[in-house]
Design brief:
By secondary structure, the chain is mostly helical. It has a domain of 45 residues. The chain is built from two helices and no strands. The longest helix has 38 residues. The protein starts with a helix and ends in an 18-residue tail after the last helix.
């Protein structure tokens, strides 16, 4: 849900509102980076399969995020 800047400033205070917008911008940038990484991984997997069709790709069993507790 998007809120106008003036309403955000009134609700959270100018400094907090700026911080919230900054965090939202960071979230968007991280999402873009993850999307690009997934596309790159898929592209590499496709190339690997074309070059070495009989080989399997070893994948880690634990795919938890390093940022998660």
């Amino acid at each position: 849900m998007r809120m106008p800047v003036s309403q955000t400033n009134a609700t959270y205070g100018t400094k907090a509102a700026r911080s919230r917008r900054h965090l939202a911008a960071l979230d968007i940038e991280f999402a873009r980076q993850w999307c690009k990484a997934a596309e790159t991984a898929h592209e590499l997997e496709t190339r690997y399969t074309l070059v070495l069709p009989d080989e399997t790709i070893m994948r880690p069993s634990n795919l938890s995020s390093p940022l998660s507790p």
